[in-house]
Structure formats: C-alpha cells, structure tokens
Amino acid sequence: MAPTGSRRSGYSRRAQYNLFTGYVIAGVGALIGAILLALSFFQPQFFGGLRGVAQDGVSPATETAATVRTGSKGFWDTVSGYYRAGSKNAELKREMEIARIRLAEAEAVKQENARLKGLLDLQDEEREPVAVARLVGSSASSTRRFAYLGAGSNDGVAIGMPVRSPRGVVGRILEVGSESSRVLLLTDSESVLPVRRAGDEVVAFAEGRGDGLLRIKLINLGINPLAPGDVFVTSGAGGYYPPGIAVAILTETTDDGGLARIVSDPAATDYVSVEPIFEPEAALGAATPIERELSE
Fold first, then answer.
1. DSSP letter (8 states) at residue 152
2. How far apart are CA 248 and CA 206, in angstroms?
C-alpha cells in the first residue's frame, strides 16, 4: 500500500531542530548556573555590587510596604485601645474600690487596737475580786436567762455584785445562798445595763432580749451614729460595774440603736470572778424591785 501524502516532509526535521535547540539552551543555562554557583562559593564578594543594585531597585517598594504596615498596625492599635479603654477603666475602678476597702480595714484595725489597749489599761487597774468560781449551770428551758455560780455568802458574795469573765461582763448576782448563787445574765429580758461605745461618748442602754442577743437603745435619739462592728463597754452609770468592761459588739442597726451579740458567752465560759459593787450607794438607788425584795 502506498504511504499517505498528507504528512509534510519537513515535519520531523523541524522537530529535531527544536529539540536540539532546547537541549543546547538547557545545557548552556546549567553551565552558567554552575559557574555562578562556583563563583559564589569561591568569590562571594563578586556579586556584592549586583546585590546592592538589586536592593537599591526594590528599596522604594519595600519602604512603602513597611510604611503601610506600620501605619495599619498603629491604626489597629488605636482602634483596639479605644475599645479596650472601657474594660481598663472598669478594672481600675475595681482596684481603687478594693484599695479603699483595704484602707478602711486598716483604719478599723488601728482603732480596734487603740480600744483594746484602753480596755487593757482599765483591766490593769481593777480591784481584787471577791471570789473566783465556776459557772455550774444555766437555765435552758425557761425564757429567763440565769446562771448558777459555785460560790455564795460564805465566800463573801452578795446580791448585786457584778460577775465577769476574762472576756467581759457576764451578769450580776441576783440571789445568794451559803454555797451557791444565781446570776442574772445580760441576755435576760429583765437585764438593763448602761453602756457607751468604745472610743467616744455615745451612750446607750443594753437590754436583754432573752434570745442570746442584746438590744442597744440610744439615749439621744436622732440620726443613728452606730455601725455594725462597734464595741460597747460599761459606762459606769448605775454603780454596779466599773467603766470600760467589754459588753457587746453591734451586729445590726435599727432606728433607735441596734442589736448586738455579747462578748462573754456564758455557754463558753468556765471560771468567772465576782467583784465588789463599783459604787454601792448609786447601785442601791438603781436597784430593781426584785432585787430590793431579795435583799429585804
């Protein structure tokens, strides 16, 4: 069969020339690359000028890009700082509030130390107790609040004498036997004790409620100056107790005073001391009817 005449006769020759030319160009390129590589190893300074020229050529573009990058960074920092300003201000306000609280606590500790030092000075000047005895019992089911003391008239105990623990006032003697006595506790509903706030001259009455708390009633009504945490001590009025003995700590304020918890809890008290009446004549004039009946 005769070969087809559609294929041109110069086709294979041109393809061979093109392929040969590609090989030559690739070989020349590889040779030039090898020479440049060898020069870079053995003569590094040979290309320094070329690199400088290239760097000078692209320097304006890189400077523009750096300026844009820096400007955009500053812009986003400004935007993010603006949005973070609110949270930062709130955080600073919280820190300032905490600092104020810590400062108030430090001032309260300072004042409390001064109060305690004043109480210690008063305790150093106290007189010798009449008797020291153990609290042997207390009323549990009755609405009245009494305690029983293991000392009586044989020990020199008499009606009206104040009873205190190392922490503060417990109550006063209500009835006396030869070997034991009954104590009217501060929390009894019939107990009324003149007190003042430690550190100033705010005077009040501490009245028992029968539930373990005291009602602090101010003598001078008006704006209530009391605050939770205030310490109350005996004022010396009434003649039973010497001034400055710790009585109670305010826990809640009311319109005419507040509620307070006693400093010396009888349930947690073991030994107590019975002291002589501070001013017998004043105490006699302030005696309650039940005390007059018992003494008569």
1. -
2. 9
